[in-house]
Design a protein that fits this description.
By secondary structure, the chain is mainly alpha-helical. It contains 19 helices and four strands. The strands form two sheets. A two-stranded antiparallel sheet has the order 1-4. The longest helix has 28 residues. The chain is globular and about 65 Å long.
Length: about 425
């Protein structure tokens, strides 16, 4: 079996082992398992049934992640994207009053467009055309974004009407205190170079939360998944000639496109997966996994499937190949039968892992050129805009537009390639009309 893994995933060439990859896959799954319940919870606001949505979430995630494992041999996991599912439910179905079947048709067409753009190398060209400074800024920005999500998930940072955000009253918030304790444990384990430190931390916090009443014990361990038939292959293309339908398609398209690009660049840059020219090998295969996953997700009955930033947690634990992704995919399939057991892991257990991973990804700032404002400033803008706008795509937009403007205004336009100009035009049109 080990020899099959070696032949398929080239473990030795990538400096990893079966044990490391399995641990990395388990870590990634633990940090993103919330999507199994959160995605159906959001989409069920449209009237779609929760049980079949849970099955669609698991199957769509597993299928797309398997593609990533075998087509691209990368340790990235995919699932229905947060933000995109909220747009699907609250903006398209509830806000625009379009049937959820029509929204699924929009997701399906978006995925088909992605497949065409991937086959024509357009998406790969955008990934590989990003200047080094922006790749650093995007990677660090995703790190800050993940950290922010982790602090919110742990309820350490909460809403404050006076100043937007504030610290929770710690004495009255045991889950926040447990998250902080878990964060210290994970840092100590990482500092001592304990293999699987983040995963150990998640398990310890979950166990400690039982007597505190934070971890809710399940009524059972195994349950049969419900039928997928109420939402399977229910796309409705009857409004395809309407302008509002295409507004929905291109909004899905725009956000998903740059969320995926940002995640691939950010995580790859963090662990030196880019080649000597700053390009991501097999980018086309990675992007095709995302595109086909989106089409399959729409057929199964869920919103846009995209590459998850939580993949960084497994990468930080040593995951370097598709075996990490394969592990995540298998766990998603098992999750359909063990959903009661998986649901006991509290948010305060996975939140410290996100904070840790965010810190790792911000380390890339050490390689930024601080002496050139045309390189430094766009990276900083991308870095700050991601968490503050709660959007990876928005951070990329502001980073690229500021990069192009500064190069032109300082007489260094020759350093730009044609694709950067095209992207700026697209971003401006997006701000004006979408």
């Amino acid at each position: 079996m080990d020899s099959w893994f070696e032949r398929q995933f080239k473990l030795a060439e990538n400096g990893t082992s079966v044990r490391t990859e399995l641990l990395a896959g388990l870590t990634t799954f633990m940090t993103m398992a919330y999507i199994i319940f959160v995605n159906p919870g959001i989409l069920s606001a449209t009237g779609m049934p929760f049980g079949p949505l849970l099955v669609a979430t698991c199957l769509g995630s597993a299928f797309a992640t398997l593609l990533m494992a075998f087509l691209a041999n990368y340790p990235f996991a995919l699932a229905p994207g947060m933000g995109l599912n909220a747009f699907f439910a609250f903006a398209v179905v509830i806000g625009m009053k379009l049937p959820w079947q029509v929204a699924l048709a929009a997701v399906f067409i978006e995925g088909v467009i992605f497949i065409v753009l991937t086959l024509t190398k357009v998406r790969e060209g955008i990934v590989n055309s990003m200047p080094k400074s922006l790749k650093i800024g995007i990677s660090a920005g995703i790190g800050l974004f993940i950290t922010f999500i982790g602090l919110q998930s742990a309820t350490i940072i909460v809403n404050n009407d006076a100043v937007l955000l504030g610290l929770t009253p710690l004495r009255a918030n045991p889950p926040a205190l447990l998250s902080l304790a878990g964060l210290i444990l994970m840092v100590v384990l990482e500092a001592r170079k304990v293999t699987g430190g983040i995963l150990i931390g998640i398990i310890v916090i979950t166990i400690v939360g039982i007597p505190l009443g934070i971890t809710k014990m399940p009524e059972g361990v195994v349950s049969m998944p419900p039928s997928l038939s109420p939402i399977f292959c229910k796309m409705d293309f009857s409004l395809i000639a309407k302008p509002e339908f295409w507004v929905v398609v291109f909004t899905f398209f725009f956000v998903d496109f740059f969320d995926t690009v940002g995640t691939l660049i950010g995580v790859s840059n963090r662990v030196d997966m880019l080649d000597e020219n700053g390009r991501l090998p097999r980018a086309s295969q990675a992007l095709m996994s995302d595109a086909v996953g989106t089409v399959a997700g729409a057929v199964l009955g869920t919103s846009t499937v995209t590459t998850f930033v939580e993949s960084a947690s497994g990468v930080e634990q040593g995951g370097r190949t598709g075996l990490t992704a394969l592990t995540v995919a298998v766990l998603f399939l098992l999750a359909m039968f063990f959903s009661p057991l998986i649901s006991i892991v509290p948010a305060c257990a996975t939140a410290p892992a996100l904070i840790m991973v965010g810190g790792y990804m911000m380390m890339g700032f050490k390689d930024l050129n601080y002496g050139d404002w045309t390189e430094f400033f766009p990276a900083i803008i991308a870095f700050f805009m991601m968490p503050f706008s709660y959007s990876i795509a928005t951070g990329i937009e502001f980073g690229i537009v500021s990069y192009v403007l500064l190069k032109l205004l300082t007489g260094r336009g020759k350093e730009l390639n044609c694709l950067m100009y095209v992207l700026v035009v697209l971003f401006v049109l997006n701000w004006a009309f979408l």
